[in-house]
Structures are given as structure tokens and as C-alpha cells.
Amino acid sequence: MPGHRSHIADRxxxxxxxxxxxxxxxxxxxxxFATRGLDVPMAAIARxxxxxxxxxxxxxxxxxxxxxxxxxxxxxxCAGAVDEALADPDPWHAFQTLVEKVCAMQVADKGFTAxxxxxxxxxxxxxxxxxxxxxxxxxxxxxxKAAGRLRADFAIADLVVxxxxxxxxxxxxxxxxxxxxxxxxxxxxxxxxxxxxAPLPPPAPLRLTHALxxxx
Length: 216
What we know:
The protein has 216 residues and is mainly alpha-helical. Helix content is 72%, strand content 2%. It has two domains: 1-61, Arc Repressor Mutant, subunit A (Orthogonal Bundle), CATH 1.10.10; 71-214, Tetracycline Repressor, domain 2, CATH 1.10.357.
């Protein structure tokens, strides 16, 4: 039945084309978000992928669905880094290593911070991973303070300020951004140590959750 075999072949070819288009869209979106942030126009992503806007929206009906698909691996990696920190028996090493990893992720991918700090209520799995990472980070901070290694007046707001400053560093191009980020993080980690407990002004009224922006 050659006609039947041809029909099956046609269906397989269509599925292969659909997968190819989807992969091209994801690759283009990943590059665009990394260089231009999350607000890059969807039409620009379609052009970069070499597909029509209608094709993009057939695969990803909203910006939220595209963003969460692009950054699901990074958020999972961040959540994994938090889990590793929670398993570390040395509270200060756990805190230090986690801060270094998250800041390095910021520099490597400019869209990551915006994705991580944005609430996507309908993306249940994405939100679950992000909340797990936030809660684990708070526990890492608590343990480091309880062990007397992290200064007692450290606040999550201080980490928010570091992440915001590191975003500015990440805006630079190329290797200088990574070098400057590592130095900034090293400076701040020294300031966060319990031995450097000179009085500070009150922390800013910032929390990770306060930095969230809800996208619909």
C-alpha cells in the first residue's frame, strides 16, 4: 500500500518540521533574552528564528509560555544549586558558593534574573521550582547566621542589592563583565562575613518577593 506509506511519511515529515521550528524559536528566544532581556518583541524573535509570527504563536501562545520554556533549565539549575548548598555541612561555604553561582548565572544570561524574579502564576512547575529556590536560599542564610559566620544584621535586602548591582555589571560585554562580577561578589562576601560587623545603616525595605513582577 504505497499510498498509505506515503501518508505516514508525510505525517512524520510534518512532525519533524514542527519540532525543527520549535527548536529554532527556542534557540532564537534564548539568544534574544540573553542579550536584550525579556521585553524583546515577539516579532523580533520570530525574525531571528526565520519563522512567521503566526508560527511562533502556534507553538507558544503567550510570552509567558515562551519565557518559562526558555528558562526552565536555568531555574532548575538554580534550584539545584540551592539544594547543593542545603546539603553542604559548612554553612558559610554553602552561602558563599551559592551567591557566587547565582551571580555567575546572571552574567552568563542577562534574561535569567528577570525570569527568576518574575512571577508566572500559570506556569505551575516553573513557579514551584522558583519558590523552592527562594525558600532554600532563606534557609541557607538562616544557617550561616546561626553558625555565626554571616553577620547578624545581614538581610535578604542586602542580597537583592547585590543582585541588582551585579545586573549592572552584567550589562557590560564579554569577559570584562565576568571579571568585574567576580570581584564585586568577592568584595560583598567579605563585607557579609560576621567579622566585619561595623554598624550599618538600616537595610532597604526589599525582599526577593517584593522584586517580583507578575506577568499575565
